[in-house]
């Protein structure tokens, strides 16, 4: 029993040395780099000031449309890209657990038989059973925090994976909203094209009848046919775009979109919550993709500590305690207890420059991670600035386009009336109809862009993440 006590005391001393090792970290102190962007976003037009609510506003609140919320939830439950991103988080978590385990000794129960010849030629056997720290898994006393630095690296990479998962969810929510808005727009354009086609079919029949009675010439008939076929082409194009929108939405959902959510009669405008905006660019640091890049920078910084520690001595520890006997039946009898502890000091003398190359590599990788972090902030800044520019101008453009549509509609009515009364040519009437159709199409497309821009602004400000989601 006394021998066993001595064994555990010495093992405890080795563990104490490992604890002291945490004081000798070789990792450079991390300081968050200054953001390489202006302190504030450029302001164009009338943009409301105030605290930013995007990261704190759940997507369920921002997207007030029930159909869109159902589609987003289906995507969150079934999208394969999001599933892969979340599995990468679990993979990184397992890596962290493995790195943390390296900071503690591994203790195994073992039994063995050794059989061989002695110097006198006799054959003997030795039986062992007990606890051991095997040489293949020798415990490293972390005097210079090499193992601790590797653990920090793994943890930072895990946090980066977590942020990547959040960024993937935000991107998915934004993608579903964008696909749904496109579907809404193309469905409305299809309705407009079908209505225009019906009107032009009636107009063509009228011109054809007038031509047969000598009231119109061949030119009028050809122009009417051209306008009719143009409408048919618009219908076919809108049908194709709508089918492609459904296909894109199905891919994001990970299943076929319910017909009740994408079928006819769903072209009503989607309601979106208003988003108050503050303009300091430091808000970008709340975006998951920027946080991911920063965690990757922290991981690269910790790798430098591990590379530096490789230049210093390494202490490995193997130990065992148990019973030893030449006879199997005497293995657990009194007096058979034995123990051993075998510390080993390794001092790098010649490694052909391997450690120096690893340190240089770690430093370069940190510079790469720094550049990627700064680029992520710059890209985020541009995305927000673009969305702000859209918010400031798209609403004005839509208002002007709506006024133009009203004017074109009145022009088409008047030219058609003048044509029927013989005061103008059919060419004037056709031109007015073309202009009205083009203006109506532009208005529908701009209306969708306004919704797309507001949703994009919500996304680029880091909104859409909800801890309640997987």
Mind sketching the topology for me?
Blueprint: H1 2-21, H2 59-62, H3 66-78, H4 80-101, E1 108-117, E2 123-133, E3 139-141, H5 146-212, H6 218-253, H7 259-262, H8 288-309, E4 314-325, E5 337-346, H9 354-420, H10 426-460
Antiparallel strand pairs: 1-2, 2-4, 3-4, 4-5
What does this molecule look like?
- With 470 residues, this protein is α+β, with helices and mostly antiparallel strands.
- The protein folds into two domains: 1-23 and 106-141 and 313-347, Outer membrane efflux proteins (OEP) (Single Sheet), CATH 2.20.200; 31-103 and 142-312 and 354-460, Up-down Bundle (Outer membrane efflux proteins (OEP)), CATH 1.20.1600.
- It has helices spanning 2-21, 59-62, 66-78, 80-101, 146-212, 218-253, 259-262, 288-309, 354-420, 426-460, and strands spanning 108-117, 123-133, 139-141, 314-325, 337-346.
- Strands 1, 2, 3, 4 and 5 form a five-stranded antiparallel sheet that branches.
- A hairpin with a 5-residue loop joins strand 1 (108-117) and strand 2 (123-133).
- The radius of gyration is 37 Å and the shape is elongated.
- Residues 1-23 and 45-52 have low confidence and may be disordered.
């Amino acid at each position: 029993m006394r021998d066993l006590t001595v064994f555990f005391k010495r093992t405890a001393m080795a563990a104490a040395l490992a604890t002291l090792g945490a004081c000798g970290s070789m990792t450079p102190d991390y300081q968050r780099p200054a953001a390489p962007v202006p302190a504030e976003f450029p302001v164009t037009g009338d943009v409301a000031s105030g605290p930013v609510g995007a990261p704190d506003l759940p997507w369920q609140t921002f997207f007030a449309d029930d159909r869109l919320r159902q589609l987003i939830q289906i995507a969150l439950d079934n999208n394969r890209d999001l599933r892969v991103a979340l599995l990468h988080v679990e993979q990184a978590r397992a890596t962290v657990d493995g790195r943390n385990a390296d900071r503690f000794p591994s203790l195994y129960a073992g039994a063995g038989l050794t059989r061989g010849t002695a110097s006198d030629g006799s054959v003997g056997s030795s039986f062992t059973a007990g606890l051991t720290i095997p040489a293949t898994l020798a415990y490293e006393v972390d005097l210079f925090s090499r193992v601790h630095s590797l653990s920090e690296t793994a943890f930072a990479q895990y946090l980066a994976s977590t942020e990547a998962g959040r960024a993937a969810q935000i991107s998915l929510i934004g993608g579903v909203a964008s696909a749904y808005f496109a579907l809404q727009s193309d469905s409305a354009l299809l309705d407009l094209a079908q209505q225009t086609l019906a009107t032009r079919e009636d107009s063509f029949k009228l011109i054809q009848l007038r031509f047969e009675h000598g009231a119109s010439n061949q030119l009028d008939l050809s122009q009417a046919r051209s306008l009719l076929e143009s409408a048919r082409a618009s219908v076919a194009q809108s049908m194709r775009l709508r089918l492609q929108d459904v296909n894109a939405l199905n891919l994001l959902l990970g299943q076929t979109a319910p017909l009740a959510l994408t079928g006819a009669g769903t072209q009503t405008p989607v309601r979106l919550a208003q988003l108050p905006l503050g303009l300091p660019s430091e808000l970008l640091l709340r975006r998951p993709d920027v946080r991911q890049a920063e965690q990757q920078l922290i991981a690269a910084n910790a790798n430098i500590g591990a590379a530096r520690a490789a230049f210093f001595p390494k202490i490995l520890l193997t130990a065992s305690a148990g019973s030893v006997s030449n006879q199997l039946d005497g293995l657990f009898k009194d007096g058979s207890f034995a123990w051993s502890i075998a510390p080993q000091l390794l001092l790098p003398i010649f490694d052909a420059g391997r450690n120096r190359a690893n340190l240089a590599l770690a430093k370069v990788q940190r510079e790469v991670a720094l550049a990627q972090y700064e680029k992520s902030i710059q890209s985020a800044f541009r995305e927000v600035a673009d969305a702000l520019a859209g918010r400031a101008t798209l609403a004005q453009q839509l208002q002007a386009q709506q006024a133009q549509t009203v004017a074109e509609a009145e022009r088409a009515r008047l030219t058609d009336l003048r044509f029927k009364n013989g005061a103008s040519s059919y060419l004037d009437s056709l031109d007015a109809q073309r202009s009205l159709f083009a203006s109506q199409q532009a208005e529908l497309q701009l209306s969708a862009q306004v919704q797309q821009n507001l949703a994009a602004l919500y996304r680029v400000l880091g909104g859409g993440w909800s801890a309640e989601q997987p």
